[in-house]
Structure formats: C-alpha cells, structure tokens
Structure of ARB2 cotranscriptional regulator A:
Amino acid sequence: FSLCFVVLYVVFSLSTDLLSRIDLDELMKKDEPPFNFPQTLEEFEYAFNEYGQLRHTKTGEPFVFNAREDLHRWNQKRYEALGEIITEYVYELLEKECNMTKAILPVDAEGDEPTSFIYLSPDALSNPSKLLVLIQGSGVVRAGQWARRLIINQDLNSGTQIPFIRRAMEEGFGVVVLNPNLNYLEVEKAPKSSPSHPPAEVSDEPAEKRERKDEQEGKKKREFYEKYRNPQKETETERIPIRENSSSEDHVLYVWDHFVSRAAAKNVFIMAHSYGGLSFVEMMNQREVQVKNRVCAVAFTDSAHNLWLQETTKGTQDWIFQYCSNWVSSPEPLDTPLDSMLPDCPKVSAGTERHELTSWTSFDSIFRFFAEALKAREDEEAEENSNPVTTRRSSFRNKHQDL
C-alpha cells in the first residue's frame, strides 16, 4: 500500500509540474484549423431555397454545426462567421424586397464617429394613420432578425421580421425596424508596448547570463508547444460605444425621441420580443406621457420586462395592463389566457414552448390584437365626440381579457 501511495504521489507530482508549464487552453487547440472562413453564402456552399430554408447547395442538407468532430471552438467560430453573412443577407432583403432605407444614428454623427442605423419604410415618418415599431431581443441579432438560430436551422419566416413588415405594409402601416444590439464599433486593440526584456530582478547574475537563460527557456517552451499543438491567437479588440446608443435601452429611447415621436402617425403600435420588452418599459418610464398619448397597443412576445424591478409608476402599470398583451412560451394552445404571478399586462400562450419561436407563432394573433385596439380607439373617439363623458377604450380591454 505504501509503495502504491509513493508511486501515485510521484506521478501526481510530475503531472502537476508538467501542467504548470503548459497552457491548457493552448493545448486544447491541438490541430485546430485556421479561422479562415468563407465571406459569402456561395463560398460556404449554402443558399436559401424557395421555402426560405438554408440548404447545402450540393447535398441539399440543412446546416451542420459539427463540421469537424472534437473541434467545438472552430465549429463555433464557423457558425459565427456564417451568422455575420446572414446578417448582411437580411439587410439586403430589407432594402431590396421590403423597400426600406437606412437611417444613421446618431442623426448628427460627424467624421469617424462610430454609428449605428435603423430601417424605415418609405412612409414611416409620413404615414398619418398607423406606425409599427419592431424591437427584437438581446444578443447577436441585428435589424430585421428575431433569432439567428431560427434563420439558420429553420427558415427566414420564423427567424426574421420580414413577414411582419410585409403584413404591416399590406395593412397600411408605416414601419420602423430597430437595431438595439448594434451598440459599439469593435476595433483591433493596439499592441501593448513592452520592454525588450523582462524587468530587472534582484539577482547577482550578470545581465548577459540572465538574457541567455531567458532565451533558452523561451525556445524550450516554443519547441514544446509546436510539438503538441497548432496554436491560434485571436485578435484582441476593444469596443468604442456609439453615442446615445450604447445599450438597448438607450437605443430605444433615442429612436423614440428622434423618429417615432416625430412621425406623423396618429396611432403607434409596438411589437417587442424578449429584452426588447424591457427596453420599451424603460423608455416608457422616461416618456410616460408621450407614450400614453401616441401608442395604441403593445404586443410583447416572451418579454423580459418586470414592472416592479424597473420601478414603474402606478400610472404606467395601469396603462400597460390596459393596452398591452404578452404572448409567452407555454405548452397551452395559442391565445390561451395564463395566470400571472404579479400584476402586469394579460399573458396568453404563444402556442410554443420555445422562447425564440414566440413571435412567429403569435403572428396572426398579434395583428388581430392591433386591429381590435385600433377599432376600439376609433369607436371611442367617435363616442367621445358625441358624449365627452366616457371611459376610454374600455370595450377593447374587456374584450381582450376574454381571449
């Protein structure tokens, strides 16, 4: 037993000593191919078919994440590279198929200042009747997207906002597409200046001897690493925030102040997914009176807002209860009313348990909700003109509670 213990102790000691000299992260990059990925869908050998599904141009198969076994980091980088191409592809669809144009943010950007942008339909600011504002959740998704995963693995309809834009235009809405996750410009970090050799240590060794020793040690490390792995160092970057748009909350407030509040539309409708719902509530906290005067209805999908943690006023809470609805992930059939643990806007089932799908599965219900809200407002305005003493839009809320 003692001998076994000694052997184990020696093995452990040797292993610990070896591991102390090895960068495990670097070692795990053994035989990792370079991060040189295609720049276009064609080069990736993928294309969207007539159903909006991403398929390999030669095999017809869906996208495969694990293109190389046991190389998760490389596969993830490849997926991200494809995602960047998808982002540009969706921008192109917004411009060419939806006839939308970019508006640069900040509106008074100068010189080399980092900028973001949103998309506007041709009548977004001039439509006198209806305006729809689309706000996605957090993460890598950019203007026009609900979920990158759905675009790549399912189809364009479920993963992008394009069906909502088209339907809105058909029904006479102007449309504003926000871009709440484009908050900074990422640039390569300047290399840190460093001395030609390490700082002098308290030692009796001559400087030349120390330098030779350091050089020999460095050579041994390089030879060891070259023997056991093919290293790749990622470029170090830094982020330069975009003025007044450095977060989702700032972006939504900025777009409200510079575009939505100045639009001609009498009736503004908001659709906000996930973190977009939280950003809308933060904006309302700061523009409560404006929102109440302009917004006709708000459709949340699996919204991340919390009226209590966000310290909303009683007036905001009452308004959200009356004019908003949240389609949440649930196994219940679509539009089934759901109990809420805290007072909030009514919650109904989105007809799916997948968070990222809630916007798509609620598509028809949301436009029906908007139509009912608009009709209720028009009926009440007509009633107010004939009878000034009336309860504003009570019929809409009573009907909506029965969904």
